[in-house]
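Entry 14. Ran structure prediction on the chain below.
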Amino acid sequence: MSQPLLIDNIAFAKRNEHLTGTLSQVDCPRLSEFLASQYPLEISKPEAAESCLIKFSLIGETNAVGQQLLHLAVAAKLITLCQRCLEEMPLDLNLKFDYLITYQNLEHAEVEAFEDNDEFDLQEASQAMDLRSLIEDEIIMALPIAPVHTQTCGKLLLQSGEKTNPFAVLKGLVNGDK
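Output, structure tokens:
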């Protein structure tokens, strides 16, 4: 696993900084538990290299009233398992998050007022916010609980035919048959 990507989120927002980058499955061990391959893939084909990439962009901002904001965009191409046919399936995620940086000394009523706002999520002020962990958390929460192919699964076979009634034996016992 690679080192955490730490930023001072207040300074980042005050300076209106911009950061872009790419993470791989190796960088996100908790996310790997939800993917088709729980171990880093050996990439032999260029098109397979994109199957486990996470691209991100983080923008800091200080708005007109002096609040510090972070805007995170995440584009992930992941391979998960279809829960219907248990075959690998690609999953493309394009996520956007807006965070308001809050300080620990906020009153409880102020925090509740911010929590009722759906425009942004709260992010605690930190001189060492782990961006890699934040991205991994957001992707895990955005994953579908039971991913399935949008079309009919390729290897899913429906069996047709007459099924025997499991209570047929009991019917024979009631009628006196043995």
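Strands lie at 6-7, 18-24, 53-62, 68-81, 88-102, 121-124, 129-130. Will compare against last week's run tomorrow.
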